[in-house]
Amino acid sequence: MKAVQVGILGFGTVGSGVVKLIRENGALLERRLGAPIMIRRIADIDVTRARNVDVDPAVLTTDAMAVIEDPAIDIVVELIGGRDAALRFCREVLARKKHLVTANKALLSTHGLELYQTAARQRVSIGFEASVCGGIPLLRAVKEGLVGDRVRSIIGILNGTCNYILTKMTESQRPFAEVLSEAQAKGYAEANPSLDIDGIDTAHKLQILATLAFGAYVPLDRIHVEGIRRIDASDIEYARDLGYRIKLLAIAKQLNGELEARVHPALIPEDHLLASVGGVYNAVYVVGDAVGSLMFYGRGAGQMPTASAVVSDIVEIARGLLHDAPVRATPPPQLSEQEAEIRDITVVRSCYYLRIMAIDKPGVLSKVAGILGNNNISIVSVIQKGRQEQSAVPIVMMTHEAIEGDMQRSLKAIDHLDVVSQETICLRVEGVTG
Amino acid sequence: MKAVQVGILGFGTVGSGVVKLIRENGALLERRLGAPIMIRRIADIDVTRARNVDVDPAVLTTDAMAVIEDPAIDIVVELIGGRDAALRFCREVLARKKHLVTANKALLSTHGLELYQTAARQRVSIGFEASVCGGIPLLRAVKEGLVGDRVRSIIGILNGTCNYILTKMTESQRPFAEVLSEAQAKGYAEANPSLDIDGIDTAHKLQILATLAFGAYVPLDRIHVEGIRRIDASDIEYARDLGYRIKLLAIAKQLNGELEARVHPALIPEDHLLASVGGVYNAVYVVGDAVGSLMFYGRGAGQMPTASAVVSDIVEIARGLLHDAPVRATPPPQLSEQEAEIRDITVVRSCYYLRIMAIDKPGVLSKVAGILGNNNISIVSVIQKGRQEQSAVPIVMMTHEAIEGDMQRSLKAIDHLDVVSQETICLRVEGVTG
User: Which CATH number is B216's domain given?
Assistant: First the structure.
């Protein structure tokens, strides 16, 4: 049977992982697919650097267009990352009616709709399993496994770097900055960590996942995003005392035809399965109207897990190619161009954790409680640890469910009190059932 | 676009769930599939009983063959359960070159190979997502998501009844018999609970899952099976003191070309994600050579979760039908007729937990330790709780890794000691990494 010819753009970590996997498991793949997969050409700016996999130098080129334009190539895999060049090349791939596989979440979260629509028009597929949660076969599960379900909610740990940092802070009670440095030294965090720790990468993945799960386009800039920079070792400690863990969560919920879409650190009950997801692992908790609660767990990044997802997309497209079957990995037919109705963050309801740093003197609690009460927020519990007259001590509060707008107004007023010495930490509580 | 015509055999809990789901999410399904799904005929012995869903009486029949032979029907869904009648009807469906969807794990675990081979010969699909772990899209993930991976191991909690019983015993420190009665009263366990609590149902599911994941036929009678009847509240308590939970596990591991396939209760470290899977939930921990560790979690049974899986198979087959695409949900092309090389249980290696009930008198521990030592088994720890001279007290031991055959010989010798008052409880330890 004829071989499936693949071209790769970007011969970095993931690119060489894909080559390695197709080589090592080649016989198995051929048996499963019914045809061999051939890597015909690989383009990279640097074609001389040593990789952990040998390739015939004739396969390598510095010219991406030589790969895209090779008439023998059926599937082009874009693994160069970033937005500008990647977008240009992806457009060229689709313009030539070739199938595209990409792991590029930054690109899809901003230009996904254009690419999905172009692919549909050109009757080719876009496989993007690797763009969300690396090796976890999550998008496939949502698209095909839950095809009969209306997805109600998604709560995910989508960024391994943040989960590593928060897990280490929890286990060792060390401060954020120290654990971040350690993560950078270990290669788990970038030199410029903003994309991860400010929640931006998580928002990119939520954009792709929510658009797929809810079948309407979620504009990236409508996702409310907060990162984990301000989480203190003490917050993790207080949360633990209260029976919670702190995780950076990506949340999308369907409520009365509107969609909540937000990324922020949150307290999650310690007996929730997501609370047990530690280290660099990712996990996504999905609720469907028929299937109920599901969770998917695995490595969200790394060379071989990501390669595994890329290869699964190549095989899926190859199956169609070999049998002249229709496009499958593409944008789901249910994706409408219509934008999802995103619920404004100010009307979202949540329970809250507050850490207010206030001068320890009589009457402070009454002032704070007064502000909350005036904004319709009831307090569940208050912990005030340590006494240090005339200096700032933490007041930790848990509230009943309240409206975000009311909380924002309260925080402004609380932080204006002259007894409050620094900006109040306010975290939402998620994953509480019943 | 032409509708996809479905016939259903068996209008019980799952059958009426499928009808309900296709009705309630019909518009969504039509949008996702590109064509409506019509339930053309439903066969059941009882066509008069009220269900939680209304159907036109003309759709109902007591004659299964009327459904199978209806020339308009493309896909037949077998939900009658059991082996004999189901097998007969499934053969008739395939003989007529119709696609088959079934949730029947008892049938597939014994007659799967015949049905898979017939389907391949007839060029039709068999969808069986619902047969293992109900609503969790697990088979699809293994077959398509891990298509580039060599699966190394599978450890699963595949039976909700057993997990409910063990979870309740753990939470409330109550005895097995009492919790089983409660589970029966709540409808979580059958009046005759043997299929569940003796591990038979779990073995059925492991047979299907392992055959798919490892690509070679695993004969049901080669799976070593032990149930949970002998687990005592005290075992759960001791395990907890040692940092473990007790779960009924289905295990399949590839080791040097051989496959371990076994079902038994086991101790699993409390920080392993499977240890946090409580109640009636199922979960499967899969390790692939590229993707690393994955876990899938969800409801393994129940009307709507099972219906969700059945509908996902119907849609997958319908997609192929609508586009004249080739068979996809069928037996994977990689499934060979060749039987897997199953490693005999006597050569399996494991660490063990032992609870020996022995008369409390000097020299007992030395006798037991001597027997273990003579059989190449080293002890990690011993706990002897309570002192009651001349009456039986538990001696709880954890061992280093040992060979099952050595352990079996030791147990025989230990239970022959005149100071040992009842059969020793011996449980394997699983999920220990590193």
Answer: 3.30.360.10
CB pairs under 8 A between A and B: 203
Structure tokens at A321: 């190619």
Task: Note whether A80 and A109 are same-domain residues.
Answer: yes
| Domain-located, residue B434 | no
Determine which of A147, A212, A289 to mutate to test the interface with B (most B C-beta atoms within 10 Å): A147
Chain A residues in contact with B305 (beta carbon < 8 A):
290-292
Catalytic residues of B: 205
Instruction: Establish if B37 belongs to a structural domain.
Output: yes
A271 occurs within a structural domain: yes
If you measure CA to CA, which chain A residue comes closest to B134?
A291
Say whether both B82 and B163 belong to one domain. no
Range of the domain at B261: 138-299
Number of domains in chain B: 3
CA B352, B354, B358: angle at the middle one, nearest 5?
Answer: 160
- To 10 degrees, what angle do helices A404-416 and A364-374 make? 150
User: DSSP letter string over B257-326?
Assistant: TEEEEEEEEEEEETTSGGGG--TTEEEEEEEETTTEEEEEEEESSSHHHHHHHHHHHHHHHHHHHHTTPP
Q: How many angstroms separate the CA of residue A138 from the nearest CA in chain B?
A: 8
Q: How far off is chain A from B257, nearest CA to CA, in Å? A: 14
* B159 vs B189: CA distance, rounded Å: 11
Residues in chain A with CB shorter than 8 Å from the CB of B36 are none
Angle at B85 (CA atoms; ends B83, B86), nearest 5 degrees: 60
Q: Are residues A123 and A71 part of one domain?
A: yes
pLDDT tens-place values along chain A, 434 residues long: 689 999 999 999 999 999 999 999 999 999 999 999 999 999 999 988 888 898 999 999 999 999 999 999 999 999 999 999 999 999 999 999 999 999 999 999 999 999 999 999 999 999 999 999 999 999 999 999 999 999 999 999 999 999 999 999 999 999 999 999 999 999 889 989 999 999 999 999 999 999 999 999 999 999 999 999 999 999 999 999 999 999 999 999 999 889 999 999 999 999 999 999 999 999 999 999 999 999 999 999 999 999 999 999 999 999 888 876 655 545 555 566 678 999 999 999 999 999 999 998 888 999 999 999 999 999 999 998 777 777 889 999 999 999 999 999 999 999 999 999 999 999 999 988 64
Q: Do A290 and B297 touch (CB under 8 A)?
A: no
Query: A-chain residues within 8 Å CB-CB of B276?
Result: 271, 273, 276
Taking the CA atoms of chain B, what radius of gyration do you get in angstroms?
Answer: 24
Provide the whole-model pTM. Answer: 0.96
